[in-house]
Amino acid sequence: MREAYQDQLGKLADDLADMCRMVAEAMASATQALLDADLGLAEQVITGDEAIDDARSACEEHAYALLALQAPVATDLRTVLAAIHAAESLERMGDLALHVAKAARRRHPSPVLPEPVKGYFAEMGRVAVQLARGAEEVIRSQDVEAARALEDADDEMDDLHRHLFTVIMDRDWPHGVASAVDVTLLGRFYERYADHAVSVAKRVVFVVTGRMPGSGDEEL
């Protein structure tokens, strides 16, 4: 019975890792749609979001079934609870990729991004996908140091986001208020995506160590 329970916990972790892959692919495609004003690619991301929502529901149902099947203790309980929270963060990451794709669709055939900020979003997309794929590896390996290292990539995203604001707020910004609003919202989507990826990694640290990074008793 115990061995079967451990197998089910392993399956739950695999499902979460697969969700990481899904949201990484969604953001990669959404970013490309944004940069290239590619309507077909944007539509693929929008249509594919339902699969991410379904994956979250499946993960949660699996987790609740494990809680009901056996009263888990210590690491097992942490694993199940962390999975529920991680699935929520991953679904949100999918939603943020969806928002990016919808922005590309809304402005089509015109590009959403003015030329001066395209480079920023190319980099933010790269970092976002790197974080999601890093979270996948952390879930599979349960490597605490790798989980903590993802915060460095999140810092890179924060720096890009701050620099993006300096471009938008320049008094010589020639692209109008509507464009500035679009860029501001899109930048926020990428920043939040990165934050959720780090949250997923922190859940792995919680599973392994029993302490949540940033809770005051965990040394970062």
From TrEMBL:
Compartments reported by the entry: Cytoplasm
Segments crossing the lipid bilayer: none
Main location class: cytoplasm
Protein name: Phosphate-specific transport system accessory protein PhoU
InterPro entries: PhoU (IPR028366), PhoU-like_sf (IPR038078), PhoU_dom (IPR026022)
Function statement: Plays a role in the regulation of phosphate uptake.
Record's GO cellular component terms: cytoplasm
Keywords from the named record: Cytoplasm, Phosphate transport, Transport
SUPFAM superfamilies: PhoU-like
Record keyword Ribonucleoprotein present: no
Species whose genome carries this gene: Actinokineospora bangkokensis
Domain PhoU positions: 17-103, 122-204
PANTHER family on file: PHOSPHATE-SPECIFIC TRANSPORT SYSTEM ACCESSORY PROTEIN PHOU
Oligomer and partners: Homodimer.
Biological process terms in GO annotation: intracellular phosphate ion homeostasis; negative regulation of phosphate metabolic process; phosphate ion transport
Family: Belongs to the PhoU family.
Pfam families, sorted: PhoU
Highest taxon listed in the record's lineage: Bacteria
Phylogenetic classification of the source organism: Bacteria, Bacillati, Actinomycetota, Actinomycetes, Pseudonocardiales
